[in-house]
Amino acid sequence: MMSASGRFIIAFNGEIYNYRELRENLRENGVIFHTETDTEVLLELYERKRERCLDDLNGMFAFAIWDLESRELFLARDRLGKKPLYYHHTSKTFAFASEIKALLQLPFIKTEVSPEAVKDFFFYQYIPDPKTIYKNIHKLFPGHWLRTDGCKTELGQYWDVHFDEKSHASLEVIEEGLYELIDDAVKLRMISDVPLGAFLSGGVDSSAIVGLMAGHASHPVTTCSIGFDSKRFDEVCYAKQVAQIFATDHHEFTVKDNVAGNLESITRFFDEPFADPSFVPTFFVSQLARQQVTVALAGDGGDENFAGYSKYRTDDLENRIRGLFPGALRRTVFPSLASLASLIPYQPARRARTLLNTLAVSPEQGFYLTNSFFRPEIWDRIVGAELNLHIREYDPGEVTRQYYRNAPAEDHLSRILYTDLKTYLAGDILVKVDRMSMANSLETRAPLLDYRVVEYAASIPSQLKLKGSEKKFVLKDTFRRLLPDDILYRKKMGFSVPLANWLGGELRPLAKTFFENGSSELSQFFDMAAVSQLWQMHLRGDWRFTQELWSLLVFGLWCRQWQT
After folding, report:
1. 307 by DSSP, 3-state: which?
2. From 479's CA, which of 115, 292, 485, 515 has a CA 20 to 30 Å away?
3. Per the UniProt record, which EC number(s) apply here (predicted)?
4. Is 270 contained in some domain?
């Protein structure tokens, strides 16, 4: 689209939720609009405010604007990274796209794999910004803009979240403000000229969203849930309970013997290795939702904003214990005790070893170990000599440690929440939801990731997020007026999947093509004899390396799809 002045051209992906308000403000200042779109509003706003327009936007977006007069290109990405934006930049070329595969069509872009990104992938399950799997393709950081005229390129940050400005209000005042803000975020995202519904797991976050939607909707809210054959991983009963409370039009799908037939096609949508196994149920629940609606609201962001994951409680407790011992003692004695514990072949001893190793290191390194999905000793066993030559000294943990150290926060919990917002949320959760929903032509909106909610949550004192053993205390207490206690305070399951069963069952034939073939695609990067040993142990019932094998399988699929 071109601006009314004829000076600016925009390419835009996403939604500006508050565009009607912005449109009215511009109209009052004499702007004449020719369409009813948020794209035109964004374009006219940029013409008047340039990059300062980003402060006014509430939405999920990635866009590029070409200035025909100055011959400058301007790129921007939303605050939290809900929408992707990739670019390639050399002294002679510049290209951008919403998908890596689009850039790979350009003849001047070489598909050279980044060894560091490979290691990042295995330790995080995703590749943290700004890297991609390719050396010369980059992600624009969330909350950033880029301007280039071909000679000079400038990168700027327009937003960050601050955890060091805590509220001193009473719990009652904090909760009232939180309820009103989330309610407004839901209402704003319900503005749609196409059918709209919600994902419903029966957990606190999605249940609160559905409850608020029901209060604003003129007809039953369409809700969709995903389940598994295994009771251990199935939350459908809780979703049904919430659906009954709010009289929704509820739909369910069970993931059963349909993973193997879809895995290869599903993984293609990521364009680079991605191993969070919950992308599988996310794909199927998006597929189910798209049969009913075009837009779905989701509960993403509740755990990162309000400390809902068990790892936050565990890591916070570990840090308190860490403070009880002198650093010299922790660094010298604890690793030795951990080595002794590793000689005892029982689960409690393995847990003791993990705890001792975590306590021996700094808080930021401890949180990296909490977030890491690949044990260093297993990596050292399987990594191929050629790959190791390039990354022997590279430590993926520096990504986590740097965010922790630079966090605008004063307490440990706030620092790890900030770190997760910048890494796990942006690189894993939002990537998973965007790719799997877009694969089904479904638009997903997350009210709990409205930037106003994120900023407000950051201002809430940490002791109101983790209160004793209760995770997400302030959010649960806020929604007691809407949800029953057996939903608010039930044990959190998360979007878990029966990964070990999949690998030993319906995915076994596919896995064999990678793990029992010495010249498979994995052989470019790994010692296949060592990989095969892990696989044989899994088949014999030793499931300790399930996560590592899953990551190897997903990486092998990416190699097969994109490196041939």
Report:
1. coil
2. 292
3. 6.3.5.4
4. yes
Q: How far is CA 317 from CA 307, 362, 489, in A?
A: 13, 14, 21
In a shared domain, residues 122 and 205: no
Are 252 and 236 a contacting pair, CB within 8 Å?
yes
Euclidean distance between the first and the last CA atom of the chain, given in angstroms as a whole number = 37
Tell me whether residue 129 is annotated as binding.
no
Can you tell me the distance from the alpha carbon of 437 to that of 132, in angstroms, rounded to the nearest whole number?
Answer: 21
At residue 494, the pLDDT reads 62
160-212 residue pLDDT tens? 999 999 999 999 999 999 999 999 999 999 999 899 999 999 999 999 999 99
Tokens of 115: 């060894």
Give the three-state DSSP class for 28: helix
Burial 136-163 (b: 16+ CB within 10 A, else e): bbbbbbbbbbbbbeeeeeeeeebbbbeb
Domains in the chain: how many in total? 3
The closest alpha carbon to 295, from 431, 185, 432, 438, belongs to 438
Closest C-alpha to 63, from 5, 153, 140: 140
Residue 354: predicted pLDDT: 82
- Evaluate whether 503 touches 511 at the Cβ level (below 8 Å): yes
Task: Say how far apart CA 269 and CA 99 lie, in whole Å.
Answer: 9
Q: Is residue 92 part of a domain?
A: yes
The token duo for 347 is 């689960």
DSSP 362-388: -HHHHHHHHH--S-HHHHHHHB-HHHH
Domain assignment present for residue 386? The answer is no
CATH of the domain at 150: 3.60.20.10
472 φ/ψ sector (left φ>0, alpha ψ -120 to 50, else beta): left
If asked whether residues 90 and 208 sit together in one domain, one would say no
Does residue 38 have a known ligand-binding role? yes
CA distance 428 to 417: 15
Residue type, 482: L
| Spatial separation of the C-alpha atoms in residues 159 and 436, rounded to whole Å | 27
Which of these ranges, 118-132, 286-300, 320-334, has the smallest mean pLDDT? Answer: 320-334
Identify the domain containing residue 178 by its residue range.
171-307+415-488
Burial class of residue 125, CB neighbours in 10 A (0-12, 13-18, 19+) = buried
d(CA 83, CA 10): 16
Q: Are residues 451 and 530 in the same domain?
A: no
149 within a domain of the structure (yes/no): yes
The sign of the dihedral angle between the CA atoms of 520, 525, 529, 533 is: negative
Question: Which of 93, 128, 157 delimits the end of a domain?
Answer: 157
List the one residue out of 466, 496, 444, 493 whose CA is nearest residue 202.
Answer: 493
Q: Is the pLDDT of residue 442 over 60?
A: yes
